[in-house]
Structure formats: structure tokens, C-alpha cells
Write a structure and sequence with these properties.
The complex is a heterodimer of chains A (about 70) and B (about 400). Chain A is of the alpha+beta class. Chain A is built from two helices and four strands; from the N terminus they run βαββαβ. Chain B is an alpha+beta fold. Classes of the chains: A alpha+beta (about 70), B alpha+beta (about 400). The interface between A and B is medium-sized, with 14 and 19 residues.
Chain lengths: ~70, ~400
């Protein structure tokens, strides 16, 4: 799985980078940037939690390209 | 510098002219305005860039206050906490306010709104006492697991805590009553758990440690205060804006997709919280001005939201803005925990009023703004005429 950030919804509140620095870093424009492309184990759990608590509903987990087929 | 007292009653009722006059001269220390400005002196930030930047830089602009408590002597869990304590607590309560949890509550919140409006009906009514106060108190009371009928008592507690100018024994008495009440609630939940947030708090462990009684109390008080005063004022400000704009009301009745935009623009245009408290942990430069370490800083979110360099024609209520950067809920690590709930309550409210009333107009007497606290922007009384 990988996490995607919807820039139309993201308010850059910074909760994901704050509470899950193992998954996200803050990009130069203030949007969160995932540190790892394909998420597994604790990183996946962290990303799931970040998506759940995101106040703007801007994070989604989708299948990574390498996982298809 | 000729400026009004920044914490005058006049400014609490209508702060916008003062923001406009002062913004270009900020950052500025309140002592520049002469003695008697309260809060023992603080740096005032009013530009959007400065406020936004300070809120995102929690390492330089901390929220904790030295021993003796925060502003007004009340140190609030989360609000007056910095990492790592803030991080632990935020993780703990975040789950209670996720958009999904709030979505599950929405049918019930709609039911409360319907009940309140069944009593209101068409004609003239004070929407503050009959709707915008009871709705959020009932909602947060249910989340916490306390009986909703006691909302008038809760309201008097929160008023006392927020009104830090009044001071004196009455305020301390109210705070004492509130602490006693929640202490009993927490003890009861330790005996017999229930499906509510107080139970979740007393059972919670953060990194292997249970919360202390004082921390559980702190949470209850935070959620009760933060969860009702602010939402009351958001909804009152929104209904007032719409009562003054009959064409917009008609437009909304035709196109409900505009409802969330009206809520965000209300948050920007008349922010329920006008300023926040921070404290510098090191010397720092803001718009070319050096603010030394250890200083109180007041980021005025209400002024940032009216900054023309971020929001063109800021004193106009418009639906075609980019509102991503309004700071009514703050920004950064302290971003309002309850924002999904506040947005849901405002949306449910606006839809419920639109369903029932073809017109929303000012009442026969003007609304009265609250004057107890310069932090808060909202109505004490708001008579409106509801047409059906």
C-alpha cells in the first residue's frame, strides 16, 4: 500500500507530519510528503492512523503500483 | 502611536477597524500602546504570514507557561502543553474526534437540532439561548457521558473560566464546582465503566502509563469549554451573517453545495477565537522585528483572517475565495482537535434552518455581542426572525 495526499483537500494542519514523522516529512510547500513509497508493518499502521485522524480527510491509502496484478 | 486599548470593550465588539489600523505596525509590543493593556505585556502579531508562521513553528512559539499557569491562571491540557506531553495527549484523544467518528454521530446531532427547532418554530426568537448554546453543550455532554439537561450549569462554568478579567472569588467558586463535578464523574467511571469519553480517559494508557486524575479532569474541562463556547459562537456568527444577506439565503436554499463554503468563510470572516497565546523559547525575528526569548506573543488569528494580502477585500463575505489558509482553527500541532465536530454541527445547523425557514432576517432589536472576553467573538443575544 502507499499513501496519497490530496492537495485540494489538504489544509496543511501538519498533524500527520507531527504524529507520524516515521511516515511523512513536510515538503518545502508545506504539504506532507511520504518518506517511503510502499508501506508495510508499522509504517503502514502509522499511515492508516494518520489518514484516520487527518482533520481535512486529505490522506488515502491505495494499492502501490508494485502490488498490482 | 494612537491606538485604541486592544482589550477594550469597544474592540471586543468590533475589532476589525483596529486590526486594519494596527496590522502594518505589527509585530509590536503591547507596551507601545501605553500602560494598562493587560496580560502583563505581550507581542502582538496581526499579519497573516506572521500568525501562520508562528503557529507552525511550535518549537520557537511554545504553548506552555511557567509555573503559575497559563493566561488567567488556568493551565489547560493540550492547549498549554508542548511536546512531548502534548504529543502523548493528542494521540490519546485524537481518536475520539476523527471525521469518521463524527460522521457516526451526525444522525444523532441532527436529531438534537430537530428537537431544538421544534420548540423554536417560525417568528422572532433569540437563537443564542434557544439554539446555539444548547446544541453544542448537549453534543459534547453526550460525548463525555454527562447528562445533557445540566447544560445551563456547564455554560456558567465555561463563562467563568473564559472571563479572566472578572477574577475574584465567584470565578474560583465556579472553577471549584466544575472540578468537583468532573472528579466525581471520573471516580464513578473508574468504578463502573460506560460507553463514553470519560471512561476512555480513565482507562487510557499512554506509553504504558495511565492518566492521573488531574489529567482526566483537565481533559474534561478542556473538551467542555473548547467544545461548546467556540461552536456556539461559530453558529451565531454564521446565522447573523446570513440574516444580513437575504439574497444569499435564497441562493443557499437553491444550492446546498454552498453550505460548507459558507461555514469556512464564516470561520474566516468572524472567527470565534480572535487570538491565541504563545511564548518564545528563543530570540526570533518576525517581519524584521526581533522578539526576545521568554516573551508572551499573541497571534491574532482574527486579524490574520482579515489580512488583505492573503484575502483580497477581506471585509467582504464571499464564496469564491481560496480558504485553505484561514487560521480560525489554528495551524500546526495545536490545530483544533474538534474541528470535524465543529464543522459537522455548523453544517447540520445550517441545513436544518434552510429546510424549515424560507427567510432568515434580523429581529426587532439588534444582536448583542459578548463583552466578557476579548479572546472570544460571538453573540450573547441574537434575535432573528425566522420565516416559514
Amino acid at each position: 500500500m502507499k499513501v496519497v495526499v490530496d492537495h485540494k483537500l489538504c489544509l496543511k494542519s501538519g498533524q500527520c507530519t507531527y504524529l507520524h514523522p516515521e511516515v511523512f516529512k513536510e515538503g518545502p510547500d508545506g504539504y506532507p510528503v511520504p518518506l517511503v513509497e510502499t508501506l508495510e508493518g508499522e509504517l503502514l499502521e502509522g499511515a492508516e492512523d494518520a489518514a484516520e485522524i487527518c482533520p481535512s480527510g486529505a490522506l488515502a491509502l491505495v494499492e502501490a503500483a508494485s502490488e498490482k496484478e | 502611536m494612537q491606538a485604541p486599548s486592544i482589550f477594550s470593550e469597544e474592540m471586543t465588539v468590533n475589532p476589525y477597524p483596529a486590526y486594519q489600523a494596527m496590522r502594518d505596525q505589527t509585530p509590536v509590543h503591547s507596551a507601545s500602546f501605553g500602560p494598562g493593556q493587560g496580560l502583563r505585556g505581550a507581542w502582538i502579531l496581526m499579519r497573516h504570514d506572521d500568525v501562520y508562521g508562528a503557529l507552525r513553528d511550535h518549537e520557537t512559539f511554545a504553548s506552555g507557561f511557567p509555573a503559575g499557569g497559563g493566561p488567567g491562571g488556568v493551565s489547560m491540557v493540550l492547549i498549554n502543553d508542548d511536546p512531548p506531553r502534548h504529543t502523548r495527549f493528542r494521540k490519546l484523544v485524537n481518536k475520539a474526534f476523527t471525521p469518521r467518528r463524527i460522521a457516526e454521530l451526525e444522525p444523532w446531532i441532527t436529531g438534537v437540532a430537530d428537537e431544538l427547532l421544534a420548540e423554536v418554530g417560525p417568528g422572532e426568537t433569540d437563537v443564542v439561548s434557544n439554539y446555539t448554546i444548547p446544541l453544542p453543550v448537549k453534543v459534547i455532554a453526550r460525548l463525555l457521558g454527562i447528562p445533557g439537561e445540566e447544560y445551563r450549569t456547564f455554560k456558567s462554568w465555561t463563562d467563568s473560566v473564559l472571563n479572566f478579567d472578572s477574577g475574584g472569588p465567584d470565578r474560583m467558586q465556579k472553577v471549584f464546582e466544575m472540578v468537583t463535578y468532573f472528579g466525581k464523574m471520573a471516580a464513578a467511571r473508574r468504578e463502573h465503566g460506560a460507553e463514553d469519553l470519560i471512561t476512555a480517559l480513565v482507562e487510557a494508557e499512554v506509553e504504558g502509563e495511565a492518566l492521573q486524575d488531574s489529567e482526566v479532569l483537565g481533559f474534561c474541562i478542556l473538551l467542555l469549554i473548547a467544545g461548546n463556547e467556540t461552536t456556539t459562537n461559530l453558529m451565531g456568527n454564521m446565522l447573523n451573517v446570513l440574516a444580513e444577506r437575504p439574497a444569499l439565503w435564497a441562493q443557499l436554499r437553491d444550492d446546498r453545495s454552498l453550505v460548507p463554503i459558507v461555514i469556512e468563510e464564516t470561520l474566516r470572516f468572524e472567527s470565534p477565537v480572535q487570538f491565541l497565546f504563545r511564548r518564545t523559547t528563543r530570540d526570533t525575528e518576525v517581519s524584521g522585528v526581533t522578539i526576545p526569548e521568554g516573551q508572551s506573543v499573541l497571534p491574532f488569528v482574527g486579524a490574520a483572517n482579515r489580512d488583505p494580502s492573503e484575502f483580497p477585500d477581506p471585509d467582504e463575505f464571499r464564496l469564491d475565495r481560496d480558504l485553505h489558509n484561514h487560521v480560525a482553527f489554528g495551524m500546526g500541532i495545536h490545530y483544533c482537535l474538534g474541528s470535524p465536530l465543529a464543522r459537522a454541527e455548523a453544517r447540520i445547523t445550517l441545513n436544518a434552518f434552510l429546510d424549515r425557514f424560507d427567510r432568515l432576517e434580523p429581529g426587532s432589536t439588534p444582536g448583542l455581542r459578548q463583552t466578557g472576553s476579548p479572546i472570544i467573538y460571538g453573540f450573547r443575544e441574537l434575535p432573528l426572525t425566522l420565516g416559514a
